[in-house]
């Protein structure tokens, strides 16, 4: 039973992620600390229990793969690799054979067997002195929890829906906790075990959530709803602070956020390299919260708004009104910043459950992006009408995915002009229309494409996939993406040269733009506009200034 200590107490912990958080304690007990059902099974049921385990592991592998890809896409490739490495751990053949042996020897249910085998591995890793090996124990705990949740049919974590201003207090936080945490409501994180090198500390820093570790000191005196201050810079954790302390920390918090705002205001629109070259930073976004985050980080605009998410969250094809309302809400924070709305890019890995593309044979090489839209002009015209109407409120431009031919752009241009005349007759400038350069054909036809486009944006994810003939969904050929980097720089130069000659803008919006190692090569190739995950903006600005 916890003892409530009303007076102020302070723990001098370790700083994990900068910033000050003031909020109320949300105590998180994870599934690993709870009892897992435990019962004996009959020998004849071994195959059944084994099948449950194999299915759960298969599901978790798929989940980790998807998570890894999406984090690489939206946060950074190094953060995404955490989950891809976890998937690789689950693929270790000796691991499954150990589970099989344990099942036969112990005749216990699937949950217990999994827990016992994982525990042995975890103990081996957590006893190590090296921080890197210790971090592996955290990965194993994370995987164990996912497998147990799957076996027990629990598919959401309480961390996904937190009360407002929550300070999550827990013994340990694992990478997937940090990534799934309700980012709107989490104010800060306090953990009892962990290090500044742990994956979750890394993710907390990427997501700018103030965090501290109490360094093994007991957190038992913190009760649910206690007022907590986390000073992520010093590592201090204050429980039930006095009103004087609260006032002083509120002031610190205010000054810090004021400084951040000033920083973003100062650098807004003119981040320069050390040699004085101006670089424009746009954000990639697909919903309200990413747009707001990007604006908060001082982006120069939205360089790629993926409209697919608005369709994927819908159960039927959105109507013009639904689409308009969703986008208006998503873009609310942009005010007069430039917003690049990409028309629906489905096909390939993105399928709408309620719409059959009519091409089941070659999802990546068949009907995709603009090809689907030109075959289904109703969907395209609904989108264009909505974009034109939104253009009366926001600073909108339109981007076309999967372009291979200049004619694809001119066809859409005619439609867009017609809707502009009809729905925005008082517009002074025509609405800009751009092309994604993400197929080798688009690079080779860049002179023709640039003539009929107002701007272009290089999508390195698809461009690498098509140039290296390496599927972006296929982990077996993931290394080809790194090996294809050189080709991307060469092609970026071709596209940037063509754009410069015709005075048009050329940006890079694929995942490679998130990686600081590629930045210098792209800048050398003549790229001065990047569009990245909102969470990467502060880092990117720092890297540009050091360039
Ligand atoms: C790309 O292909 O690089 C890109 C930005 O588009 P998406 O990842 O949405 O296909
Ligand atoms: Mg693409």
What is shown here, in short?
The chain has helices spanning 46-74, 77-90, 93-106, 110-126, 131-152, 175-180, 199-206, 243-267, 288-296, 308-312, 320-330, 370-375, 377-390, 406-423, 440-444, 446-451, 460-468, 479-483, 485-501, 516-524, 537-545, and strands spanning 9-12, 14-17, 20-28, 166-170, 186-191, 211-213, 227-231, 236-239, 271-272, 278-285, 301-306, 338-342, 395-400, 433-437, 455-458, 505-508, 529-532. With 547 residues, it is α/β, with parallel strands linked by helices. The chain has 3 domains: 9-30 and 158-263, 3-Layer(bba) Sandwich (Glucose Oxidase, domain 1), CATH 3.50.30.10; 33-152, Orthogonal Bundle (Enzyme I, Chain A, domain 2); 279-545, Phosphoenolpyruvate-binding domains (TIM Barrel, Alpha-Beta Barrel), CATH 3.20.20.60.
What does this structure look like?
Helix 4 runs antiparallel to helix 5 and helix 19 crosses helix 20 (516-524). The chain has an eight-stranded mixed beta sheet with strand order 1-8-7-3-4-5-6-2. The protein has an eight-stranded parallel beta barrel with strand order 10-11-12-13-14-15-16-17, surrounded by four helices. Strand 7 (227-231) and strand 8 form a beta hairpin. It is α/β, with parallel strands linked by helices and 547 residues long. Helices cover 47% and strands 15% of the residues. Residues 1-5 have low confidence and may be disordered. The chain is built from 21 helices and 17 strands. It has three domains: 9-30 and 158-263, 3-Layer(bba) Sandwich (Glucose Oxidase, domain 1); 33-152, PtsI, HPr-binding domain (Enzyme I, Chain A, domain 2); 279-545, TIM Barrel, CATH 3.20.20. Magnesium ion binds next to helix 17.
